[in-house]
Amino acid sequence: MSKNLTRHLERMGITRGAVMATDLGDALAAMVPYRVGRGFLPRRASLLAKPADNVKTGKGAGTYTLTLAPADDSGTWNTCPWSTPECRVTCVLQTAGKGTLSSVRRGRRWKTDYLGGSPLQFLRVLIHELGKLPAGALVRLNTASDIRWELVCPWLFEMFPALKFYDYTKAWGKRGAMPENYRLTYSATGERHTWDHVHAMAKLHPVAVVVNVKRGKPVPAGMVDGDRDDNRYDDARGIIALRAKGAAIRRPGRFVMAV
Fold first, then answer.
1. CA–CA separation, 56 and 54 (whole Å)
2. What is the mean pLDDT of residues 1-19?
3. Class level of CATH domain 3-250
4. CA distance 86 to 118
5. DSSP letters along 194-242, please?
6. pLDDT 10s digits, 71-83
7. How many CB atoms within 10 Å of residue 236?
8. pTM for this entry
9. Of 89, 170, 204, 258, which residue is most buried, by most CB within 10 angstroms?
10. What residues does each domain of the chain span?
């Protein structure tokens, strides 16, 4: 059975001092066995993907992303402890675009293995990469995961006050105190929420909803078209409409909410 990765990391009490005391060269070398274990050549690789590497995150200002294996796809760690059965089956990161490719899925798995097995080394490399980003850059650490980074390493956001961090989360009411430069959009699902829940939450926070609107068709009036770009950092509140994609189109079930 897969272990809860966010709980594992939170319990470690990872400090900035411990991470920064980790030699960067050693940390980079530590990733190699995890890559080899997933069938890659014994070479180093970036943790963060550039905006141009993804169609959605490349739109608008563009977002740098960290993409781990969703849910329990790694076979060892569960990165989405608040996921639902339907969202796991219809996950757009698994059933649409490059997420359907074996090499891409293996790439997400070695990063998950690396974070779970060598968190100090992983975070040292992540900090190194974040340090090279331009001021004002958008960063999404939970592209396919739901880790409470504000509890795992709250000091990380203080280190990079000029970067704009944002994520989606299904952990309604279970997140910690948010750093000034880390913002969340809450993900709704028909398995857990009604439109009354969504409208009530949207008065306080941005809420993303997968809806049965076809590609090329406008989203309902009063909602933000979340497919225009991936930048959720500037959304203070309201409903973010995301069109169903991948398996969600073929078997929407209760995951996709009708409008």
1. 6
2. 96
3. alpha beta
4. 31
5. -HHHHHHHHTTSEEEEEE---TTSPPPTTSEETTS----TT--SEEEEE
6. 999 999 999 999 8
7. 8
8. 0.93
9. 170
10. 3-250
